[in-house]
Design goal:
With 721 residues, the protein is of the alpha/beta class. It is built from 24 helices and 27 strands. 38% of the residues lie in helices and 20% in strands. The strands form 6 sheets. Strands 2, 3, 4, 5, 6, 7, 8 and 9 form an 8-stranded mixed sheet that branches. A 7-stranded parallel sheet has the order 16-17-13-18-20-12-21, sandwiched between helices. The protein has a 6-stranded parallel sheet with strand order 22-27-26-23-25-24, sandwiched between helices. It is globular. The protein starts with 7 loop residues before the first helix and ends in an 8-residue tail after the last helix. Bound molecules: adenosine-5'-diphosphate and magnesium ion.
Length: 721
């Protein structure tokens, strides 16, 4: 029997205990790094590389420049200095001289470097060269233990202290694996046309090049290939899931023409009349989005579309137009909101928008009746609820608005045509159920998901890769942009409170936002309460200061919001509970306390609560003490831009993809190298290839080896294909 090239599943079936040099203690250490098999070992990628072609000699170091130096360690000492800080000093010696390395607040370095000195191992230090008492030195350089490894490029692996392994342990095991794999080579299930199109190297070369590169150029090429592998696997799973759903579901073919809804005289259809009745023309982005949705609605496959649009971009009109397409053809629409309060708000605004619109009356030749909008929440009384459910089952209710309970309770619809899920934030696992709905006849409704948290395009391809995406990237005209400023506590808060008084004096209202205290509602509530108290008796004495926080019973919350909306509360001190959906046009100013403790997206959402009327609004971001560099960067971004998509890009740059991907992706274990930020272009390329490979849904069956890899690496949820 001749064995073919080695597949990834084969590697995954080989325990690391089979490697030479892995005894029980090392095995335990590997386990702590999450490495139990050889595949996991090979995908435990280097964190950094020491490029010895860039290596300098101590004698030749130039003060003020960054340099990499290798050498042995001696003379390690440690002492306490002012302010309880520790200082560790060590000498690094190469054949040309010695360099003093000083570490502040890294007391563990003493032990580490003493061990290195005792073992006679080399270390590499990288940092800026300084001169101190006439001698060259580095302060807090990056230190990598080299051991006695040679070679032009030395890989440094991510390790945890608990593992008790060295970077050269890992390098040796990886080398051993690659050496043993060499005769057979690694299987490469990615079709050659893909590799050719993007000039990617083969698998064997890639694993060799990422772990044991001969040059940094080779490492970069290797990385590119492995990044593509990761992104392609993810996109294959997502695109496959999308295509499969489309193939397996049967939807309603909606009539989307505006001219004909069977009305006598060929008058405007329901959607046309709705749009005509609006007090404003649609934005170009709204028009484009509605026509994208119409395209989906008129096709036989059910729509699975995400509508991304910043706060105030006008998503509601688009949602209502989509649902009315269903109503126009005698079907029903459902709008699901994340909370009951939001469901109530939506119901109120949709009813107002549809005021005066009629549909043909059932069983009557010329009769017309108003479009019937119902609100279904946990709060309505049993009798009313029964009547409503009956109306839904008989088709006398046209549009229903409620929370996700709407679908979870399996409410019976006469003919549910379009479902809109207003997510505000993230479209989670639970809400994905909407994509799998079907009615008594096995037909699935068209589903539109709306989110007000813009995320960069390539991130959207990953997070929402099983959906089509429309973007409302244009705000309706005539908005006065919100001006945002940063006030450091201590030098100007008086002026801020003075501005608050001025706003209130003009009959307007102001939010004061206190941060969410993680893991402690108690502290958070206390902070909000004491802030309100302080303002009432201090800076804002004489004004009506209200309070709103998440711990209040819902009637109290309602009452607090109502008096703010009505104007009897002039200043509302609130925690982030106001982040979602609250709409008070008279609110023209927001003061955010400890603003550096909020994320970019959160601040952007919060800020969207003002600037909802005609009047110019302002947002003051207050910081206390010295914010972290990231905190400063976030605040500066908010001051500089009101564009949610632009801010989302900054957020991705600052925080990396983990936070952008959010909850749903926590279990995602295959993006080890790829970065949605660094590798944005490759996300799009991987999607393009995935679409070509999956084709009409039968495509993946032609690539069984790729499917095996998907099964190996994708988390349970992504593996759902
Ligand atoms: P979103 O849900 O995207 O945050 P909304 O749908 O609540 O935004 O719309 C915000 C406000 O803008 C509403 O008062 C709405 O009536 C108004 N609006 C929507 N579209 C337009 C438009 N094309 N021109 C002017 N105003 C608009
Ligand atoms: Mg909205």
């Amino acid at each position: 029997m001749t064995a073919g090239p080695i597949t990834l599943p084969e590697l995954a079936a080989l325990p690391v205990s089979k490697l030479r040099g892995v005894g029980p203690r090392k095995l335990d250490g590997l386990g702590k790094l999450g490495i139990t098999n050889v595949f996991e070992l090979l995908t435990h990628y280097p964190r950094r590389y020491i490029d010895r072609t860039q290596q300098a000699e101590v004698a030749g170091l130039v003060p003020g420049e960054e340099a990499l130096v290798l050498g042995g360690v001696s003379g390690v000492s440690s002492r306490r200095i002012r302010g309880g800080r520790s200082m560790v000093v060590a000498e690094l010696k190469d054949r040309s001289g010695t360099l003093r390395c000083t570490f502040f607040n890294q007391h563990w370095r003493e032990r580490q470097l003493s061990d290195v000195a005792a073992a006679g191992h080399d270390v590499a230090v990288h940092g800026k060269v300084e001169v101190f008492s006439g001698r060259r030195q580095m302060t807090n350089p990056v230190v990598d233990l080299v051991g006695d490894r040679t070679g032009r490029i030395v890989a440094v692996y991510p390790l945890s202290e608990k593992a008790g392994l060295t970077t050269w342990d890992l390098a040796e095991w990886v080398a051993q694996t690659l050496r043993r794999a060499e005769p057979r080579g690694l299987a490469d299930p990615v079709p050659t046309w893909v590799l050719d199109r993007f000039e990617l190297c083969g698998r064997s070369e890639a694993f060799e090049g990422i772990h044991r590169p001969g040059s940094m150029g080779q490492m970069v090429r290797a990385r590119q290939r492995l990044v593509m592998d990761e992104l392609l696997r993810l996109q294959l799973a997502l695109v496959h899931r999308k295509v499969e759903l489309e193939r397996s579901q049967r939807g309603i073919v909606h009539v989307v023409s505006d001219a004909d809804d069977g009305e006598p005289g060929g008058g405007r259809g329901l959607v046309g009349r709705f749009l005509d009745s609006l007090a404003f023309p649609l934005t170009t982005a709204q028009r484009r989005t509605i026509s994208e949705i119409d395209g989906d609605l008129s096709s036989a496959a059910p729509m699975h579309r995400l509508l991304q649009g910043d706060v105030g971009a006008g998503k509601t009109v688009v949602a209502v137009a989509s649902m009315l397409r269903a109503v126009q053809g005698g079907h029903q629409g459902a709008l699901m909101a994340p909370t009951e309060v939001l469901a109530e708000q939506h119901a109120a605004s949709v009813r107002e928008m549809l005021d005066g619109l009629t549909v043909p009356e059932d069983g009557s030749l010329l009769g017309e009746r108003p479009v019937k909008v119902a609100l279904l929440t946990g709060r309505i009384r049993a009798a009313e609820r029964r009547e409503l459910l009956e109306g839904l089952a008989h088709g006398t209710v046209d549009l229903v608005i409620g929370t996700h309970a709407l679908i979870q309770e399996g409410v019976d619809f006469a003919s549910l045509g379009v479902v809109v899920v207003d997510e505000q934030h993230r479209f989670g696992v639970e809400q994905r159920a909407a994509l799998r709905l079907s009615d008594r006849d096995g037909r699935s409704p068209d589903v539109l998901v709306m989110t007000a948290t813009p995320i960069p395009r390539t991130a959207a391809m990953t997070v929402y890769g099983d959906l089509d995406v429309s973007v409302l990237d244009e705000l309706p005209p005539g908005r006065t942009p919100i001006s945002t400023s940063w006030v450091a506590d201590g030098d100007g808060l008086e002026a801020t409170w003075e501005q608050v008084r001025e706003e209130v004096g003009r009959g307007r209202r102001v939010y004061v936002v206190c941060p969410l205290v993680e893991d402690s509602d108690k502290v958070e509530v206390a902070a909000a309460e004491s802030t309100a108290e302080d303002l009432r008796h201090g800076a804002l004495a004489g004004l009506e200061v209200g309070l709103l926080h998440g711990r209040m019973p819902s009637e109290e919350k309602q009452a607090a919001m109502a008096s703010f909306r009505g104007g009897s509360t002039q200043v509302l001190v609130a925690t982030t509970v106001i982040e979602v959906g609250v709409d008070v046009p008279e609110a023209t100013m927001m003061v955010v306390l400890d603003a550096d403790r909020f994320g970019i997206a959160q601040l952007h959402q919060l800020r969207g609560r003002v600037g909802r009327g005609q009047v110019a609004s302002r947002c003051v971001l207050v910081t206390d003490g010295e914010p972290s560099p990231d905190g400063v960067a976030r605040i500066e971004a908010l001051v500089a831009s009101t564009d949610g998509f632009e801010l989302a890009e900054v957020d991705l740059d600052l925080r990396g993809e983990g936070t952008v991907l959010g909850e749903r992706q926590k279990g995602r274990n295959d993006l080890k190298l790829a970065s949605l930020r660094r590798d944005r272009d490759w996300v799009a390329r991987a999607r393009e290839v995935a679409i070509e490979l999956v084709g009409d849904g039968t495509g993946l069956a032609r690539h069984p080896a790729l499917v095996e890899e998907l099964e190996l690496v994708l988390s349970d949820e992504d593996r759902d294909f």
